Amino acid sequence: MKTIIAPSILSADFTKMGEEVRRMENSGADWIHCDVMDGLFVPNITFGPKMIKDIRKVTSLPLDVHLMITEPIRYVPQFTDAGADYLTIQVESTDRAAETLELIKKRGCKCGAVISPDTPVSALMELLPICDIALVMSVHPGFGGQKFIENALNKLKELQAMRDIISPNCIIEVDGGINEQNVGDAVKAGAEAIVAGSAIFGSPDPKATILRMRG
Ligand code: DX5
Ligand code: ZN
Questions:
Q1: How far apart are CA 129 and CA 209, in angstroms?
Q2: 42 close to 142: Cβ distance less than 8 angstroms
Q3: 198 CB less than 6 Å from ligand 1?
Q4: pLDDT of 33-62, one tens digit each?
Q5: Burial class for 15, CB neighbours closer than 10 Å (0-12, 13-18, 19+)
Q6: Does the C-beta of 35 come closer than 6 Å to ligand 1?
Q7: Rounded distance, CA 100 to CA 112, Å?
Q8: Residue 143 contacts by C-beta under 8 Å, 6 or more apart in sequence?
Q9: In a 3-state reduction of DSSP, which class is residue 184?
Q10: Ion ligand 2, residues whose Cβ is below 5 A away
């Protein structure tokens, strides 16, 4: 399978979001990764469903919406209506993860569970059969431009082994601190979808960077 490259618009210039998304599409991006933060689950605030709705109008690429918000079930309808293609939730953000994932599916969207660096892969065990995506955070969620946490590679390998047995169609994604230097290690460890913010938006030639990252 071809590696999926998903630039994170957290590193975009928010005053030019439409142009930035189109620039990524023209550079060969596969998905657009949209980081939603509420200032409660994480110490940062980004944007809500209106941004997803507006981005939906300027690109035909799948929108990979990563919710870093407390009790995400409250906002599932708004994000599925806004045009998310993939909607992922942090397992630490709720006690109702399975119910939330089921609701996302019921609303016609692909769903996924995300684990932060301190959360073990075993936290995904029961959710994996429902998930279209399982995402391993390789930085603590909240900010772009952080350093890749190497232990994510062990977690990716563990997740891949579990996925192959209990949910073979689930896509393994990695997010945080990925660049041209370490992307190969992440792919080797099992990552099939790669989120990268600063490495792609900060590149003088995003097209070349995406090509090289895809390998
Ligand atoms: C972090 C976000 C990431 C972030 C990645 O909380 O979930 O998607 O934008 O940015 P880089 O690639 O710069 O680490
Ligand atoms: Zn993200």
A1: 34
A2: yes
A3: yes
A4: 999 999 999 999 999 999 999 999 999 999
A5: exposed
A6: yes
A7: 10
A8: 10, 44
A9: helix
A10: 35, 66, 175
- What the block records as the tokens of 25 is 């599409």
Is 35 designated active site? yes
Helix (H) or strand (E) holding 77: helix 76-82
CA distance 133 to 47: 22
Q: pLDDT (tens digit, 9 = 90+) per residue, 102-112?
A: 999 999 999 99
The mean pLDDT value for 195-209 works out to 98
Q: Which residue is catalytic, options 35, 38, 64, 132?
A: 35
The Cα 99–Cα 104 span in angstroms is 9
Q: Which ligand is nearest to the CA of 10?
A: 1
The candidate with the shortest Cα–Cα distance to 198, out of 2, 8, 6, is 8
For residue 136, what are its two tokens?
A: 């391993």
Supply the pLDDT for residue 1: 83
Domains detected in the chain: 4-214 (3.20.20.70)
CB 64 within 8 A of CB 85: yes
Residue 76 near residue 107 (C-beta atoms within 8 A): yes
